[in-house]
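I hope you will forgive my troubling you with a question about protein structure. You will find the record immediately after this paragraph.
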Amino acid sequence: MSTGSDSLDAIVERLRGTSDPKRRYEYVLWLAKKLAPLPDEFRQEVFKVKGCVSQVFVVGQLVDGKLHWQGDSDAQITKGLLALLIAGLEGLEPNQAAGLDPGFLAETGLQASLTPSRANGFLNILKMMQAQARGLATE
């Protein structure tokens, strides 16, 4: 299954090829550590992901027709899931990001080892990013 994003495909492939859930978690936590700090000006209600138990902020910006993302979460696993989506959707055109099939989330194998609320949060982060992408596409 190709998502249309080379970087997202590479992440999905890497996770799919890992049978050990602990290794998947370690990768997600490593991604969390790599995420750049989110400037305080973006810690606003408008950028807050709804339906997440933890605090999650995600901000998409359009630069020369390509999406650039920033975000943060107060929970490390959630921050890692956010970082995964940011890495996967970075540099896409808004319509590409908006049109992503959420089926790739299941392909990562992560949802099997996430609590139902985290798995739902993962999807909610993606939906928020896609909604922002749609908004930026019309600007």
User: Anything to note?
Assistant: The beta strands are 56-63, 66-73.
